[in-house]
Amino acid sequence: MTSSFQSSLRELRDARGWSQSRAAESAGITRQSLAAIESGRSVPSAEVALRLARALGVSMGELFRLDDEAPEEQVIRNFSPERWSEKQPQRLRARARVARIGGKDFAYQIGLGVHHAEEAADGIGVALPGGRVRFTAFRDRPAPPDLVVAGCDPSFALVREILASERGLRILWISAGSEAALRALARGAVHVAGIHLQDPETGRYNSPWVDRLVPFPATRLSYARWEQAILLAPGNPLGIRGLSDLGRPDVRYLNREAGSGSRNLVEAALREAGVPLASVPGFMDTQAGGHRAVADAVASGAANAGVAIRAVGDPRGLAAIPLAEEPYDLVIPDHFLELPAVAALVSLLGRPFVRTQVEALGGYDASQMGMPA
Question: 218-232 and 364-365 as β-strands: parallel, antiparallel, unpaired?
């Protein structure tokens, strides 16, 4: 192969978590052929190149290029060092989106482990120490997002779709636990953070956390109230009656990630009930990245119990034991309120149509949506 021919095959394969064997099988070639192409010892035929591009779901231009088409490479800030960390080898390489917020570029991991497999990527990111990412851009990239929102509420996908269809806005929605979303907002890495965080000292929701973590004036808008519940298999076959039963040896509990509002709620409730956290099977060594992930695991039998909003359990026919009713708020820095995309979001939240659509999903009280929290 001439030195002018370059390939992103290994980076794209790693970003999907594929072995050489799996990638080769998907493309209908031998592992040895794939290894030769990756190493630069072989130039693929047009047919093989097309097979590889189709298997990886990318264009030919993203997969192969000439030296004079070398992709842009830069080191930029990481949206969330906790999410995309050098301590997580399986996520060292990932599909990434890039957005400029307040004059700074940030990289956002999409695809594996989050709810955005359908999101078009700007390139491939490699996590570096110190909250940075080495980002290699694709030659052809999607238009940049107009708004970046982090949070864990599944219904925001509906709001995102309405903004896209009615206003033509491109919204990058990052699935993140409440504390991670709020810390990203404080770092300037997102425009809006969705949170449901109870203060352990006062019992109040959200405002103490904003006062403690956000170093600039910010506005809280009510999004909805929801019910947090212990989700169980249909019919509750294990006869779980409450938090104290989660310590039984026959229960497999699926936890949420540290810093999520659901995990904070359960930790406080277990301590109040006198149940040691370590006594709950799975509490210390499992974590799910979102409410839907908990509901899917319980519905499939991968876990016997988990805590999430009831709105994701009811459509799956799951039994539920209520724990708490919580407010889910959107936090917006005051210096972003005049941005056209932020103004469009705020305006949309005030429309009865949107409130009706969110409540129709079940499990939401959106009567105060868009009002100051």
Answer: antiparallel
Supply the pLDDT for residue 114: 47
Instruction: Return d(Cα 334, Cα 316) in angstroms, integer.
Output: 39
pTM above 0.85, yes or no: no
DSSP letter at 151? Answer: E
Nearest to 325 by CA among 369, 265, 270: 265
pLDDT exceeds 60 at position 69: no
Query: Percentage of residues in the chain with pLDDT exceeding 90?
Result: 62
The count of C-alpha atoms lying within 13 angstroms of the C-alpha of 52, restricted to the half-sphere facing its C-beta, is 30
**Which of 139, 144, 133, 151 has the alpha carbon at shortest distance from 99?**
144
User: Residue 233 pLDDT > 50, yes or no?
Assistant: yes
Please state whether beta strands 132-137 and 123-128 pair in parallel, antiparallel, or not at all (unpaired): antiparallel
User: DSSP state, 115?
Assistant: S
The tokens of 303 are what? Answer: 């876990």
Q: What are phi and psi of 42, to 5 degrees?
A: -145, 140
Average pLDDT over residues 71-75: 76
Residue 209, pLDDT score: 97
Q: What is the DSSP letter of 142?
A: P
Show the DSSP H helices in 204-333 as ranges: 207-213, 261-273, 291-300, 310-313
**Do you know the residue count of the chain?**
373
- Tell me the H-state helices in the chain: 9-15, 20-27, 31-39, 46-56, 60-63, 156-167, 178-186, 207-213, 261-273, 291-300, 310-313, 340-349, 352-360
Q: Which pLDDT score is estimated for 12?
A: 79
Minimum mean pLDDT range among 90-94, 117-121, 360-364: 90-94
Instruction: Indicate the average pLDDT of the chain.
Output: 88
Per-state percent for the chain, helix, strand, coil, to nearest 5: 35, 25, 40
CA proximity to 119, closest of 50, 175, 192, 176? 175
